[in-house]
Amino acid sequence: MASQEQLELSGLIKSVHQRLRESAKQSDAETVWQEHVRDAKVLKSYADAMHKLATCYWDRTMEVSCKRSNSRIEWVVSSCRSYFLGQTPLLYLFREKEDKVMQAIDSSFRYEHKPYLVEKIQLLDVGSCYNPFEAFEDFDVTAIDIAPAQPSVWYCDFLDVSVRNIDRPSFSHEERAVDVLPKEYFDAIVFSLLLEYLPSPDQRMRCCQNAYQMLRPEGILLIITPDSRHQGANAKLMKNWRYTLAGIGFTRIKIEKLEHVTCMVFRRSLFPEVGQRWCAINREAYMMPVLNIPQDFNESSANDNDDSGDRQRTEADDVDIRDAFAGLPFEDS
Predict the structure, then answer these.
(1) pTM of the model as a whole
(2) Which residue ranges does the record annotate as region Disordered (predicted)?
């Protein structure tokens, strides 16, 4: 069972997310976010809690219980390697599929492809916290966060970062911050439990649009989102994400339900027409170009939950925490 410390740490994480969403409903989401980014005390508490949960509970639990197949870190690494590396990278399979879609749109379609060259996988880890991917030698990692928990993580607000045509990321070493991120530079970008942090659907969309700009054509965006419900329970929501991201220019090439999370890989298509065609064929009445999360629809006011600092945590509260931030290790050890 989850320990009291786990529940307290995850409760802190949940309360930060919930307050942001509630504040964004009552006032301008951009103002709310900027105030949050300037709140050093809250950011440090959040970073410390996330770091401890990930390294002392989640990662360790996966290692001890031999559940590495349920590790979000291992899933990202494996997905990247199978897509970019080896004798038959999946990148070329999906390239062929895109060509067939384009030929279905226009029978005269022809395109001369170039090899996609990779020495090390250039990976941007957004909301990294403690830079877990630096341990893998076949990755060249740029780890960023608004509250870095390790010196190897650079400060950066991904919603507000400058994106330009430069050769490599530009850093301020004195401030340990990112100045500029390059267009069409990264092979892979990771959003692990990131989009739920942002208080508004528009901000989540902007994050994905920024990722699209920074990815090389045929690069991949890996999104991991909390999901403790049974497989298929959030199918409509995930399909709407697919529809929304297809409108930006992404094609979903993989979706997998792990314990407490849903993991997805989106490919930056060479041709925008591929995503447009998918949208035209598969659009259903409920679909809209918006990135909602379950908490947008079903959470009560933060004030209702925080009206008494001395209130004892109930079993219902524990379930609420489990559902609201299910990406952390709530399984029995």
Answers:
(1) 0.86
(2) 297-320
Q: What single DSSP character describes residue 302?
A: H
d(CA 227, CA 294): 9
Cα 320 to Cα 51, 144, 317: the distances in Å are: 21, 29, 5
Other CB atoms closer than 10 Å to residue 115's CB: what's the count? 6
Contacts of 213 (CB under 8 A, 6+ apart): 163, 183, 184
- Residue set of the binding site: 127, 145
Angle in degrees, 0-180, between the axes of helices 201-214 and 235-248, rounded to the nearest 10:
50
CA angle 9/13/14 to nearest 5° reads 115
How many domains does the chain divide into? Answer: 1
Range of the domain at 198: 1-333
Phi-psi region of 86 (alpha: psi -120 to 50; beta: other; left: phi over 0): left
Are β-strands 261-268 and 139-145 bridged in parallel, bridged antiparallel, or unpaired? unpaired
Q: Is 272 helix (H, G, I), strand (E, B) or coil?
A: helix
Residue 4 phi/psi, 5-degree rounding, is: -60, -40
* Token code pair at residue 106: 């226009």
Nearest to 97 by CA among 259, 220, 270, 221: 270
Local structure of residue 175 (DSSP, 8 states) = T
Which residues are annotated binding-site positions for S-adenosyl-L-methionine?
127, 145
**Cα 128-129-133 angle, rounded to 5 deg:** 50
Q: What CATH code is carried by the domain that includes residue 174?
A: 3.40.50.150
Count of positions (residues) in the chain: 333
